[in-house]
Amino acid sequence: MREHTSGPSVVVGIDGSRSALDAALWAVDEAAGRDIPLRLVCALSPDCCPGAGAEERARCRADADEAVRYALSVVEATGKAVKIETEMVHGRPTHALVEASRTAVLLCVGSVGLRHGRGDPVGSTAAALATAACCPVAVVRGHDPGAASAGWVVAEIDDSDVTDVVVRHALDEARLRGAALRVVTTWQCGFTDIYDSHAGPDRNKLAKARLDRRLAKWRRSYPDVDVQAVAVHGNTLAYLTKNANSIQLVVVGREHADTVRELVGPPGYAAVNHANCSVLICEPQNVL
Predict the structure, then answer these.
(1) Does residue 280 sit in helix, strand or coil?
(2) Does residue 94 register a pLDDT over 80?
């Protein structure tokens, strides 16, 4: 296997699950587009074989080694020009991947790992990485190479300056995938709105107009990307649920903690998992 060397890379967490293989395949274009290595990392957790003897521990190591080798062969079978590195580390997966993220430009994990069937909640590892990693984190739900440009990239933003980071990441992803970008902002009804039949449509038009003004500079910088503003009454998850089959990737800032928990945890799994809609959580602005 190709051992890890120093330098930036796109890191993928490998645990032998189908979901991890999807993450590795999804990450190939990310690494190739940046002309940096794709790094497959597998963690040998001390609690994978609790109380086990030498023979059992050796079997755990052999299983992990086989998982990495198989992932390597699957990625190589794509025939894409990307350098692949592998690394086996000792430690719990979350800690190992946080450490790997220190030199990574992107960390990719599957939405459901092997430990899900052993009692871990859906998205627990992804949620932990989303708040602790030193780089953006992609939580991959499925991979269909034939649908690379078939779905939108969706970015959720608010009125803060921090969301420019989210828009830039979303535009880069849309450009990489030849996809359209939908930038979503949400709004809530005021108490008096229930007495005014025109309040909802008016507030929707106002929110969309404000968002269009903010996006003007980005449209000039990315003329090749179809960018549309979307104003939504309610929350982003409701919009994603309604349009799940038209979306391939959702980009959100780490600052939106509630949205991140919804998207990578059970609510998001139930809403968009069947549609292979992945999630990219951007790092805080001060990390850039």
Answers:
(1) strand
(2) yes
